[in-house]
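Notes on consecutive records. When two proteins share a document, each keeps its own sequence and its own token line. Never mix them. Below: protein one.
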Amino acid sequence: MAPQLRTLEAQEWDTWYRTLERAFGGPPTPPEARELWEGLTEHDRSIGVWDGDACVGTAGAFSLRLSVPGAALVDTAGVTMVSVAATHRRQGLMTAMMRRQLDDVHERGEPLAALVASEPGIYGRFGYGMATQQLSATIDTARVRLEVPAGPGTDGVHLRYADPLSALPACEAVYADQPAGRPGMPARAPGWERLAVLAPQGGGHDGGSPLQCVVAERDGATVGYARFHNTPQWDLSGARGTIVLRDLEARDPAAYAALWHFLFGIDLTSALVAQNRPADDAWQHLVSDIRRCERQLRDGLFVRLVDVGAALEARTYRAPVDVVLEVEDSFCPWNEGRWRLAGDQGGASCTRTRAAADVTLSVRALASAYLGGVPLTALARAGRAGELTGGTLERASLAFGNEAAPWLPHSF
């Protein structure tokens, strides 16, 4: 009998999740994190592929609201927990799950789907395009200074250690302010905030401390926070510990700079590792020697426009735009064809049209440009977009851009 694909039943979750764990390898998920993931699982949005009594494929989605240019929050299917058992590779199970999932997202009326790819090469054929990048850095804090300029509010910031769990409500209120200013950030629904204080899989970071939290306060109100691990190390010359930053958010530049200055100056440490920060993170303009910060960029969030018209209408545009896009989308053919996009900073409309196309591109390329982090002109230079009417591509590229680099602060 061929494997069967069906919606997950609550009592099947353990078997389904063990299939996922086996596919990704490594130690089992710690009990507290496992309990949280089970509670967050939306069973009616989760798919299992069953070969007899054996689960051989998994895929799920969370109902997210993702920030897009213009500070809007757009209903988004957060695709997650995708796996195929090694015994059942190359049998079309992944394609079947993606087909079922995108049909379901379309029926629900969600304009977007998004995911963090374990293997980016898999998802382009399903219309997902890389829309954000994340910056990692290993900073030599023994040699690099952080120079904090004087300015309004600089002297009014007070830092204190706080219990990560007790401080969670105040920190989460700071986080809730951030998505409006940076596309790609999800608004966290109740329950999701606990992910921020759970230890990484397997415990702390390479033998480091339990999660530590420092909050920045002004006039008794929390205006920022940093959560991190402290990994001690000693050699014949003395202490060479490492601070591993988990996350840092602040409501204003003074609180932001105060938190980074604190991290640079922790005793008995000589390195600061930041593993996922925005590509345009401001600390890069505060350091004395950027070369000793060992920066790297990698892919972050992959986006899929499930409804081209609704998705393009959901965001605003940095400059006025009036362009006819001819979109290729063989996997979701309801998106195929020509769309007239007209918009500016106040809003947009995107409707079907028979007018001649100005720009041609795949839905994958459109998804990469959607959050404003990948210029349409760059996609054109890569052969991913074509201009049919002179000047339209450059104008559209300017309109799609965004002042802040899009960024996903955590996976899901």
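Protein two starts on the next line and is unrelated to protein one.
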Amino acid sequence: MTTPAEHLLPGTQRALLHRIATAQAEGRSPSLVAAVQRRGQAVWNGSRTCVDGHAPDADTQFRIGSLTKTFTAVLVLRLRDEGLLDLADPLEKHLPGTGAGEATIHQLLGHSAGLGAESPAPWWERTPGSLRPELADVLGEQTRMHAPGRRHHYSNPGYTVLGALIEAMRGAPWAQVLRREVLEPLGMRRTGPEAEAPHAGGWAVHPWADVMLPEPAEDLGLMAPAGQLWSTTADLLRFAAFLAEGDDRVLCAASVAEMKEPSAPPESGDWEGNYGLGLQVIRRKGRTLVGHTGSLPGFLAALWFCAEEDVAAVVFANVTSGPPIGEVAAELVDIVAEAEPRIPEPWRPLTDVDADLLALTGPWYWGTRTNILRLNPDRGLELRGLRGDGRGARFTARPDGTWIGLDGYYAGETLRIVRNEDGSVNHLDLGSFVFTREPYDPAAAVPGGVDENGWRGLGS
């Protein structure tokens, strides 16, 4: 007997409720709402509030702050996939005159363009965007803080520039392009740059007393692509499903996967976290979480998705600071993953057998190191050390008979099957490394040759 994917066990539901109740109480947030998705289906919603009878639900809008950046990154990747730009292009090629033109689009997406973290004063999150009518007002006089490409340095102005790039290439406002190309195809009808009832109000809570102060909800103007959006937990779960597998109406699976790849060295000391293209990537408890956190005065938000467990969690709070929102969302994923681990699909054999590929499987030796070559269900090849250690990768076939590495040490490297004149396999060539069926096989083309006296013991 199996538990249906659309239900969580009562104990799991109570653990989730306990976690958000603790977060709301200890974080002193006027309200907090959360939702969990498993295998593409919403399986739990919960909320806590300081006002009886006014708890937010899955349809209540909150500001999501920098989670907006992920949406902006999707729009840029769409431009790339349409052939309108290359991520290696300097910004100047498509948006001249910014003063940041030498930075590449890839660097802007991954926060390694060297731009400042914030726009010049006054504090852009609490003041009208009309105070910064031009990109020069956003970037300021000191455009660069670091040399482009050298390090990760989070930049809100960088995503403002990307928003301007989208508008220039689409000939339409960023918000209009976003609705047409992402929100409407994904059915995210309760997500947009302006609040629509029902929505939460933003609050600041005094650090030393249980009293509150309303926060302003400004239109951020040019800074909107960095943090303007309002959304609901229901809508962000739809977005999480898109981040899991892609959607050809918006962005193909390969491009979504590209967003999840680390784009620059992590901040010094932060070896468990990294940044892709508009997505944060963290490792915890042996699992990888991708998503983003966000904040604006009066609001906190977080979305995390774990591919290994196919679980996503979204958490919102309407307070400037308090609950550790990213940690809470990650712990919701942990609770489901640990209480109800993912049940694997049944093993099934391949529908047919490719004899040539089957003959390649089994042990191969790089020098004396034992490696195993496996045939995967997708008919790709996978090379791993015998004990799961060392260098390895998955490979996919090319039309010319070679194979290209997809990940790991050999990502992008070419695997060639080198044959004898009679068609039998002599060795594998992988990035100039020779893999043979026997350690230092004298019948194979081993670089440097093999001693003609062969293997010997100490006495010989």
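For the record: The chain has a mean pLDDT of 93.
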